[in-house]
Amino acid sequence: MEVSASILSVKKENCIKTFYNLETSGIDYFHIDVMDGEFVENNTTSLMTEYTEYLNTITNIPLDVHLMVKDVMSYIKSYLIFEPRNITVHYESANNEEELKEWIDYIKKNNCKVGVSIKPNTEVEKIYSILPFIHTVLVMTVEPGKGGQKLIPETIEKIKTLKEYINKNELEVDIEADGGINEDNVEELKNAGCDIVVAGTSLISSENYKETVEKLKRE
Predict the structure, then answer these.
(1) How many domains would you assign to the chain?
(2) SS3 category, 30
(3) Distance in angstroms between the alpha carbons of the first and the last residue of the chain
(4) CA distances to 3, 72, 139, 164, 178 from 181, in Å
(5) Which of 73, 169, 179, 202 is most buried when burial is the number of CB atoms within 10 A of its CB?
(6) Is 178 one of the annotated active-site residues of the chain?
(7) What pTM was computed for the model?
(8) 71-90 burial, b for 16+ CB within 10 Å, e for fewer?
């Protein structure tokens, strides 16, 4: 199980110290939540750009970019300059599958891995046809747009269904879960088939990042 640390709840006045503590805690990725105020209510565009620019100069930990935006291609181009490990786009942002595949192809052509995210109410079967073309499926275990929410239990069944399909069809696709993840539910997510968990509020608000990351991975 890998841990991607969401920096959504990092306070600007403490960001340098927080980023350093996260880097030395054993996380695998920095998770960048990019929200435009249209696809979701929250708007983090300027803050995430600032944080990403800074992280790009101080860390070797890969960036895990999650785009919750309407003008997807514009943001893809904006974040490719930071050479992230992957860029994840939302299935629900696309007008059709053809447009979704255009985004996928563009990201891959720029030497970046690509993920597709689905909201809690989106059926996993809707993305089966694009699984052979992507590296990661990001299952939202809360409604996207806000930090600090509780994990929606039904989303764990979606992860199980998705994992069974991936294994049955011998696909090389990681499953990432994002939203309300903590020490109490991470084992259930792992058993369901999760490869990567996004830890936000539960990690940032903890007193010892290293211990929290170790517990998440150990569970």
Answers:
(1) 1
(2) strand
(3) 9
(4) 11, 26, 12, 22, 7
(5) 179
(6) yes
(7) 0.95
(8) ebeebbebbbebebbbbbbb
Packing angle between helix 45-58 and helix 15-23, nearest 10 degrees?
50
Contact at 8 Å (CB) between 72 and 101?
Answer: no
Q: Which of 28, 64, 174, 178 is catalytic?
A: 178
Q: What confidence tier does 147 reach under pLDDT thresholds 50, 70, 90?
A: low
**CATH number, domain at 12?**
3.20.20.70
pLDDT at 207 over 90: yes
pLDDT tens digits for 109-130?
Answer: 999 999 999 999 999 999 999 9
Q: What angle separates helix 72-80 from helix 97-109, to the nearest 10 degrees?
A: 10
Residue 21, token pair as written in the block: 């503590």
Per-residue pLDDT at 219 exceeds 90: no
Integer Cα distance of 32 and 11 in angstroms: 14
Residue 35 lies in domain: 2-218
Which one of 33, 36, 64, 174 is the catalytic residue?
Answer: 33
| Tens digits of residue pLDDT in 127-139 | 999 999 999 999 9
